[in-house]
């Protein structure tokens, strides 16, 4: 992988941000636009968006990977279809509906937004962990056992390292889903770039809408790019 | 040959109707025989009820009328101008600010109506029939027990409330005739953290619970105010624009069917903010069909006889 190819995307994203900035600042903003399009408002929205995404993604990793590993153990296999069904429902159910229902039951705020994100974005990591472990060549496991490895050693030294590329692919999907879905957090006072996007729609102000949309896209693509880099570093060498 | 005849007949009918004395306003008849009229509605319950009330009433007078839902204010207005719909109910404040491009509302409802009706007719050829008695404006509301406990009845009482928290949706949070203007008009300062941004539907339930926020942004004709038992604070400094509803139609349509004005007049007189709240609640809270609600109410009020 050459350096120029790795830097292409971040440069493109910076160019998109710069273009949006120049376009917005070249316009005469009316009082409603100025209330949203200022450094404080945008920083708060972007930071809370990143926070929502980061916490939700971390929780997905902490829940989905151990759960995925567990579900590939022989004793837990009967549970696999049940858990997968729940994760599928999570991905299929409209996040906004889930979030509003939860908030009517349990109150509003960041916690409920994060719960919704985890529920909606857990599937890719979970499914890829299971698939990643299942696709390991049985002959390899046989060889491990032949060398006298314990079950734990087989998991740590063979199954998990072999599954890493697939799990990471799932993680990238989860991150992008989280960035997109975090825009609905605005409806329950949980902040995020949805504050900007929804204000743009409701007030029919294109500069606000475009700013929110560009920022969301830049964050999604940027985080996906970072995760792509990480994928290369955590991928075990020599396998 | 045909057209002038119809016009002459229509004029004659109007003349007899005008001269006929007490009877015609509420009675039904065939005065609109042959007229095809589509009544537009924006995409919310109140508008659907209004469109159905209007269409039902026009049908009772012989017209071939139906209600048609359209997404959003701007699209509904465009549909009227393009002739896709022949009439719809509009709010004075919306027309004044959105279509006529003013940024300062007129506090007095009658003056606001007159200004809108005149400007819209002169500029756009849209005629406003006499305004109804309901005003679907913004307001702050709170749970009634809380209102008694805090002793607040009007917006200026907010100055005496310790650390008020307010639930709003993002449009209200940013509009000049929304929260920013409201706070400065009443000389209030509320820290950003005490203003909670929520979806409209969630605001009503959270305001009722009173934990996340004491006060919530509501629309004055919303059925949930009644259903949840919220107390609406009086806008004693008359800050909020007046959003009084009235049927609007192209002037040429009214010239063609002048009877429409008379047929719809009793509707406007009977529709007050409280009546509208009740009708909206039947649709929004009880889940009834807007067309059924409209028909039942017209029958109860004796407008279909």
TrEMBL record, chain A:
The keyword Transmembrane helix applies. It is a multi-pass membrane protein. Pfam families: BPD_transp_1 (PF00528). Keywords: Membrane, Transmembrane, Transmembrane helix, Transport. The chain crosses the membrane at residues 46-70, 82-102, 108-126, 160-188, 208-227. Its main location: membrane. Residues 46-227 form the ABC transmembrane type-1 domain. It is found in: Cell membrane; Membrane. Gene3D superfamilies: MetI-like. Belongs to the binding-protein-dependent transport system permease family. This is ABC transporter permease.
TrEMBL record, chain B:
The lineage of its organism: Bacteria, Bacillati, Actinomycetota, Actinomycetes, Streptosporangiales. Gene3D superfamilies: Osmoprotection protein (prox), domain 2, Periplasmic binding protein-like II. It comes from the Bacteria. This is Glycine betaine ABC transporter substrate-binding protein. It comes from Nonomuraea antimicrobica. InterPro entries: ABC_Gly_betaine_transp_sub-bd. Keywords: Signal. It holds the Pfam family OpuAC. Residues 36-300 form the ABC-type glycine betaine transport system substrate-binding domain. Residues 1-19 form the signal peptide.
């Amino acid at each position: 992988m050459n350096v120029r190819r790795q830097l292409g995307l971040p440069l493109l994203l910076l160019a998109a941000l710069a273009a949006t900035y120049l376009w917005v600042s070249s316009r005469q903003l009316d009082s409603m636009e100025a209330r949203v399009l200022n450094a404080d408002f945008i920083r708060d929205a972007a930071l809370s968006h990143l926070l929502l995404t980061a916490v939700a993604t971390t929780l997905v990793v902490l829940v989905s990977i151990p759960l995925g590993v567990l579900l590939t153990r022989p004793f837990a296999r009967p549970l696999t279809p049940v858990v997968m069904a729940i994760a599928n429902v999570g991905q299929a159910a409209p996040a906004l509906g889930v979030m509003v229902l939860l908030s009517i039951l349990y109150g509003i705020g960041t916690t409920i937004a994060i719960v919704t994100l985890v529920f909606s974005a857990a599937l890719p990591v979970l499914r890829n962990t299971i698939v990643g472990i299942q696709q390991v060549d049985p002959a390899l496991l046989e060889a491990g056992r032949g060398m006298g490895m314990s079950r734990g050693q087989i998991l740590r030294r063979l199954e998990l390292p072999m599954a890493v590329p697939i799990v990471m692919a799932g993680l990238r999907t989860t991150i992008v889903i989280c960035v997109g879905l975090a825009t609905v957090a605005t409806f329950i006072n949980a902040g995020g770039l949805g504050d900007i996007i929804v204000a743009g729609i409701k007030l029919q102000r294109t500069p606000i809408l475009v700013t929110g949309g560009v920022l969301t896209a830049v964050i999604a693509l940027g985080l996906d790019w970072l995760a792509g880099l990480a994928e290369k570093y955590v991928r075990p060498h020599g396998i | 040959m045909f057209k002038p005849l119809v016009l002459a007949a229509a004029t004659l009918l109007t003349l007899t109707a005008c001269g006929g004395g007490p009877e015609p306003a509420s009675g039904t008849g065939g005065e609109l025989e042959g007229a095809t009229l589509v009544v537009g509605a924006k995409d919310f319950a109140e508008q659907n009820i209004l469109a159905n009330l209007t269409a039902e009433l026009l049908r009772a007078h012989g017209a071939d009328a139906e209600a048609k839902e359209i997404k959003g204010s701007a699209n509904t207005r465009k549909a009227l101008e393009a002739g896709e719909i022949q009439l719809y109910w509009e709010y004075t404040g919306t027309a004044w600010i959105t279509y006529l491009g003013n940024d300062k509302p007129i506090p007095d409802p009658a003056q606001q109506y007159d200004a809108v009706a005149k400007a819209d007719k002169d500029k756009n050829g849209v005629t406003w029939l006499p305004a109804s008695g309901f005003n679907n404006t913004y307001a702050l509301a709170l749970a009634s027990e809380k209102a008694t406990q805090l002793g607040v009845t009007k917006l200026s009482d907010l100055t005496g409330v310790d650390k008020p928290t307010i639930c709003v949706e993002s449009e209200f949070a940013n509009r000049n005739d929304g929260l920013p203007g409201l706070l400065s008009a009443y000389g209030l300062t509320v820290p950003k953290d005490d203003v909670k941004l929520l979806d409209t539907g969630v605001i009503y339930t959270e305001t009722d619970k009173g934990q996340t926020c004491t006060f919530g942004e509501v629309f004055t004709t919303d059925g949930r105010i009644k259903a949840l038992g919220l107390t609406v604070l009086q806008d004693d400094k008359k800050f909020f624009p007046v959003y009084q509803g009235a049927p609007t139609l192209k002037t040429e349509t009214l010239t063609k069917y002048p009877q429409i004005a008379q047929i719809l007049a009793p509707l406007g007189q009977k529709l007050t903010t409280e009546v509208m709240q009740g009708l909206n609640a039947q649709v929004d809270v009880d889940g009834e069909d807007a067309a059924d609600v409209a028909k039942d109410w017209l029958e109860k009020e004796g407008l279909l006889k």
